[in-house]
Amino acid sequence: MYAELRGWCKENNDLKSVEVSDGQARIQELTNLAAEANASAVSLAAEMETLAKEVKEATATLDSARVLHGNKVDTFNDNEKSLYKDIEAVESAATAISGGEAALVQMPEGRLKEVSAKLQDAVTRRAQRLDNTLSVRDHEHLEVWLVALSLSHALDK
According to DSSP H, which parts of 99-108 are helical? Predict the structure, then answer.
C-alpha cells in the first residue's frame, strides 16, 4: 500500500506543481495587466485634464468671438442706418436741386434748411467716398449749392 500511496502522492504532486506553476504565471500575468491598466488610467487622467483645459480655452475663445461678432453686427447695423439716412438726404437734395432755382426759391425756408443740413451732414461724413464717385461737374454744383445755403443761413441769423 505504501507503494500505491507513494505513486499517488508523486502523481498528485506533479499535477499540483503544474497547477501551482500555472497559477503563479496567471497571477504574474494579471499583476502585469493591472500595472498596465493603472499606468493607462494615470495617462488618461492626465490627458483628460489637458483636454478639459483646451475645452475651457476654446469655449472662452468662442465666447470672445461671439461678443466680437455681435459688436461688428451692431456696428454694421449702425452704419447701414446712417447710410440709409444719408441716401435719403441726398435724394431729398437731388429732388430739390432738380427743380431748378425756381423750385428752390419756392421751397419753404424750414424745408430748405432741413434738406441743406441733412445734405451737409451726409457730405461731411461721406466726403472721401464722394470724391471718388461724383463727377467734377456734380462736385462743383454741390459745393456751390452748399456754399449758397451756408451764406443764406448766415444772412438769416
Answer: 100-106
